[in-house]
Design goal:
By secondary structure, the protein is an alpha+beta fold. It is 49% helix and 8% strand. The chain has a six-stranded antiparallel sheet with strand order 1-2-3-4-6-5.
């Protein structure tokens, strides 16, 4: 018989040998233990004797075991065993090696990383809510992360089960963690699925900004802020967030639960759509932007000041969150067309020149062509067209606008593998499609990559993501680095191909190893999120650094964020 909790360490506890203390909460202590019969480590949650004599605490502990036993889901931590031993009540669960969300996602993280986490948590909540279970204490320390980077929702100690008449708290009593507590929960009112949505919204806010929205000296003061204080817009702490992403967060954190998403599934779907819209914009700005907007290429934010049209007041309902996401995609498309109107003719892109002119000179160029004689036009520029890196002059444009004979003369040179994927000229998309197709058929990977972008975005052709993926594959096979990276994005998002994180990782790694910053940026995200590879923040930082050295501004921000996160993990000895 043991007389204190400290005496349990190093002792045999029924079929378990208790090795170490993992943590202690207000009600129970969690230990790491070994179970020789099945050769596995487990986490044992043990209720102290003085609580075992209290009907309320004992009832709550049994309540947790009863609830979790009903929940069998890949993202909910299961229960192995429950019972009493030597006067102690215990609960045995899997021992998870990866730590918690509080350990692994400190500081701002990329929306794409947050989206994977939120989707898994919401999948668990969708299942629990369908069973009538409301968690009521969702917070980063209650989200465990396994070795594969997957989330497991844990600690259902104060969960509410519909139809259970057992009263484990006094009427109007407040249970939960104030920093993540829904307003109705802080007020002691009835809770529902939207209460859990609010708590997950706070976790998302913290992941995207590096802080919780409300802070105060006492827990009570924090709870009051949830009830009365205006919500600080997420973009006030992280300006790189898009308005679409911010709108989803604001809706999840609406003070009235009727104004929030009606379910965890709806929340996850909306956030996934907003992140996809952000990725479309990032892809356009990274691939097309350097020519037209040199400083925007690696950011996730929308060009200009579109955020001014989003009402970020806490009292707004934001009922059109999907419309906001759609508008973001439309904005990206408009920006894409503006950039393509400014880009040079495809013959210049397929030559050795890597950067197209950053000005619009086409209108004067059109009348200039007929003014010169055909013989003069063919005598001077024809020898210069294959070499032509130099001039950003207006006089060099008429030869590049010349029909097919010019493209025939440019075929022999092999494009560099780092050549940027460009957009089709807006003045003659049909001709560009034919030229890109001919270039691709002739075995030039840049032509396949350019054609893939047109099919991916539905520019001048019906949108066909499957065909786009095939063209990026041909470009990648031909050694085009951005083609490999773009194909990786499609495997990562399941666009045009089946989702395959391992293939995406391999493509990003190949692209990054050859010095492509876009590939390094995505490779860092894969290491940071554990998608397709074991989570490794050291390698994530190294990949972000390579992308940063290649001129990717977003990667530079992630280097700083990831370095701070790794430093905090190191300080804890993890």
């Amino acid at each position: 018989m043991f007389t204190s909790m400290e005496e349990l360490v190093g002792r045999q506890f029924g079929p378990y040998r208790i090795d170490a203390t993992l943590g202690q909460g207000g009600m129970a202590t969690v230990y790491k233990a070994y179970q020789p019969a099945v050769d596995r480590y487990v986490a044992i949650k043990i209720l102290p004797r003085h609580f075992s004599d209290d009907p309320q605490y004992l009832g709550r502990f049994r309540h947790e075991a009863k609830i979790v036993a009903q929940l069998q889901h890949p993202h909910i931590l299961p229960v192995f065993d429950f019972g009493e031993r030597d006067g102690y009540t215990f609960l045995a669960m899997p021992f998870v090696h990866g730590g918690t969300l509080a350990d692994t996602c400190q500081g701002p993280v990329a929306p794409a990383v947050a989206e994977r986490i939120i989707s898994q948590i919401c999948a668990a909540l969708k299942y629990a809510h369908a069973k009538g279970v409301i968690h009521r204490d969702l917070k980063p320390s209650n989200i465990l992360i396994d070795e594969s980077g997957n989330c497991l929702v844990a600690d259902f100690g104060i969960a509410h089960l519909d139809g259970d008449a057992t009263k484990l708290t006094a009427t109007g009593a407040v249970m939960g963690t104030p920093a993540y507590m829904a307003p109705e929960q802080a007020a002691g009112a009835d809770v529902g699925p939207q209460s859990d949505v609010y708590s997950v919204g706070i976790m998302l806010y913290e992941m995207l900004t590096g802080r919780v929205p409300f802070k105060a000296e006492t827990p009570l003061a924090v709870a009051i802020q949830h009830l009365t204080a205006p919500l600080p817009p997420p973009r006030s702490f992280n300006a790189s967030l898009t308005p679409a992403v911010e709108a989803v967060v604001l809706k999840a954190l609406a003070r009235s639960k009727e104004d929030r998403f009606s379910s965890a599934e709806e929340f996850a779907t909306a956030f996934g759509g907003a992140v996809s819209a952000s990725q479309v914009m990032q892809r356009m700005e990274t691939i097309v932007g350097p020519a037209a907007t040199p400083d925007v290429g690696a950011t996730l934010s929308t060009p200009g000041s579109r955020s001014s049209v989003i009402d970020t007041r806490r009292t707004s309902r934001v009922p059109g969150y999907l419309v906001v996401a759609s508008l973001a995609i439309v904005a990206a498309g408009a920006y894409f067309w503006i950039a393509t109107w400014r880009s040079p003719a495809p013959t210049a892109v397929e030559s050795a020149a890597a950067q197209p002119p950053n000005r619009v000179a086409e209108p004067p160029a059109a009348p200039t062509a007929p003014a010169e004689s055909p013989t003069a036009e063919r005598a001077a520029p024809k020898p210069a067209a294959p070499e032509a890196p130099s001039p950003r002059s207006v006089s060099a444009k008429p030869p590049t606008v010349e029909p097919p004979p010019k493209t025939e003369s440019v075929k022999p040179p092999t494009p560099p593998t780092t050549e940027a994927i460009t957009s089709a000229p807006a003045d003659n998309v049909g001709r560009s499609i034919a030229q890109y197709q001919r270039s691709c058929d002739d075995g030039r990977p840049v032509g396949c990559a350019n054609l893939g972008m047109l099919y991916l975005n539905g520019t001048g052709v019906p949108q066909d993501e499957v065909r786009a993926a095939g063209l990026f594959q041909r470009a990648c096979d031909g050694g085009h680095l951005l083609g490999c990276a773009q194909l990786g994005v499609m495997y990562k998002n399941g666009t045009g191909v089946l989702n395959d994180d391992r293939k995406a990782f391999a493509l990003f790694e190949r692209s990054c190893d050859a010095g492509n910053g876009f590939g390094c940026l995505h490779l860092g995200d894969m290491y940071a999120s554990g998608r397709g590879v074991t989570t490794d923040f050291t390698k994530a930082i190294a990949s972000f650094q390579k992308a940063c050295d290649a001129g990717n501004a977003m990667a530079c921000k992630r280097v700083r964020a990831a370095s701070g996160r790794q430093g905090r993990r190191g300080a804890r000895g993890r």
